[in-house]
Every structure is written in C-alpha cells, then in structure tokens.
Amino acid sequence: MELRPIGVLHTPWRSIADCPRNGRQPNPAPLCTAVVLPAFVEGLRSIEGFSHLIMVYWMDQVKTPELSFTPPFDTEVRGIFATRSPRRPNPIGLSVVAFEGLEGGDTLKVRYLDCIDGTPLLDIKPYLKSTDCEPDSSMGWLEQHATRRR
Amino acid sequence: MELRPIGVLHTPWRSIADCPRNGRQPNPAPLCTAVVLPAFVEGLRSIEGFSHLIMVYWMDQVKTPELSFTPPFDTEVRGIFATRSPRRPNPIGLSVVAFEGLEGGDTLKVRYLDCIDGTPLLDIKPYLKSTDCEPDSSMGWLEQHATRRR
Q1: Ranges of chain B with pLDDT below 70
Q2: Cis before residue A28, ω within 30 degrees of 0?
Q3: Which of A130, A140, B117, B143 has the greatest CB tally within 10 Å of its CB?
C-alpha cells in the first residue's frame, strides 16, 4: 500500500493554524491550483465540462493521529471517523472543489481547498451528482455546527 | 506515504468482473458491512446519527494503472482523472454510502459499496452536505451516461 504523488496543491495557507475549518468557510473562497506532474497529465483528458471534482491528497504536515478528541467548538469527545479532522490513522484528505478550468495543460484552477500549500496530490476524481450528492443526508452531532458561507 | 488498513469491507462481489459500475446501480442495493479493527474502534464514537458516510479504501485487486482508455460504453479516449475507473495511479477508492447502523461495536452496516469483498478499508469520513453535496454540479462527458437506480 504505497502511494506516489501525482501532483501538488497550491493554497494561500502556509501552516495548519492558517487553514480554514473547511474550504467553504472563507468568503470569498480564494482561487487555488492543482499542478499535475508531467507523467500524469495524460490522465486529465476530458476533464473539462465537470463543474466539480474530488481532490484526494496526503496531509503530510499532520502530527500523530488521535482516535478521539473534544473538538474546539464542542463539549463532548468524538471519534476521528465522526469528524473531518486531519489527524486520521491514514492522513488522506478529501475536498469537493469547484473546477474553474485548466491552464497550461497541467494546472487545474479550483476553489474550496482547505489544506496547506504544497500538499501532495494523490488523485483527482470527477464529482458525480448521481452517486456523490445526498441533499437529504443528516450530519449527526455536526448538524448544529454546520457552516457554509460563500 | 505508507498506508495501513483500519478494517475490511464485505460485499457480495468476489471479483472485479462481478462488481457493479457503481454502488447505486444494483436495485435493490445489497447490505454491505465495514468491519473496523479493534485498534481503531475508539474512532467510531459519535458516528451514529450520520445518515451517510464516505468510505475510503485500497483497491488491492486492481491491475496496473492506465492513464487513459476508451470506456466500454463510450467511443472516445478519456483520461483516468475524468473517470471513476479503479485503474488509477493510486488505487484509492471512495464511495458515498448510506449508513444503517452499528452492530457489535465494530461493524457498520452500509449500502452502495461497489468494491470486491475483502477490500482493505483506509478511512471513514462523515458525509457533510454542507461541503460534499453539489446538486447543481454538471458531469461533463458522463452526463449522458448517468445511472441512478434505487
């Protein structure tokens, strides 16, 4: 189970402390980029036309995992799998981003990333509303803490 | 960038050829399970109450990656990052699943998995409609091929 970067993410955030709670929190959401390594550019064929993508990345700056913790805005202990905290057993991050076009053949312009500048990119998947969109879903203990500002 | 399984996924599908095109294609969608290893069960605290989860897994049966190919239902060559094909540079799979409860403290009952029985589980994330749901998204070249049967 060995990973290799397919590119790198560029965001305005230089440290974990700078990062927003999620990519939709900053208003307006800044433009970020995903630069794909030359060896993988062929994989971008036909990516135009998708309005949203799923970026999968390796949160390499994250400290040791923590299986449960009390979130800063909460009073109860929550399990890591009931949160989107980066301190996961496998520090794989995932963001649904708005895709605003390709530049120079290898650079994707996106909004709603929330990771540190320089984060290694592992995968890009097209966002499919047929399988990825659940508007009637309920968010458990996070329901009361939801933020979505644009 | 080293991964470790946090559990294992159980589905009715024994080979890649058996797997549905996506987890929402079978009608009715069969009940599947995610069994979390004892060392990681603490991470499930407060997971009840989420109606949907994102399962992240390692598609260990997948052959060598292919950066572009012509999908079976298509006539044009598409890049891997414009498809959800498993033959990715990093074979990380992702499914938005309906969560139907915990059993025995370590087993999550879910629907809409599309991977092979025995697939190693890497992460469980709560599905958050505030950041993961994009009902107005467009699906590029896949728009004409969408399937969502329930």
Answers
A1: 146-150
A2: yes
A3: A140
CB A38 within 8 A of CB A106: yes
- Mean pLDDT score, A103-127: 97
Residue with tokens 């990715």: B88
Integer Rg of chain B from CA: 16
What's the pLDDT band for A149 if we cut at 50, 70, 90? very low
Among residues B107, B6, B44, which one has the least CA distance to residue A90?
B6
CA of A96 vs chain B CAs: smallest distance (Å) = 6
The answer to whether the Cβ–Cβ distance between B126 and A146 falls below 8 Å is: no
- pLDDT at residue A5 is higher than 90: yes
**Tally of CB atoms within 10 A around A42:** 15
Average of pLDDT values for A107-135?
Answer: 97
> Which of A2, A131, A136 is most worth mutating to test chain B (most B CB atoms within 10 A of its CB)?
A131
Count of A-B CB contacts under 8 Å: 241
Distance CA B3, CA B149 (A): 34
Using CA atoms, how far residue B27 sits from B20, B95, B147, B149, in Å, is 11, 17, 11, 6
**Calpha distance A50→A58 (Å, rounded):** 23
- Token match 């559990």: residue? B7
Q: How far is CA B114 from CA A31, A36, A97, B61, B87, in A?
A: 34, 28, 23, 13, 14
**Does the beta-carbon distance from B131 to A92 stay under 8 Å?**
no
| Residue of B22, B89, B134 with shortest CB distance to A6 | B89
pLDDT value, residue B78: 97
A126 part of contact set with chain B, CB < 8 Å: yes
- ipTM for the assembly: 0.94
Q: Distance between CA A19 and CA A12 in Å, rounded?
A: 9
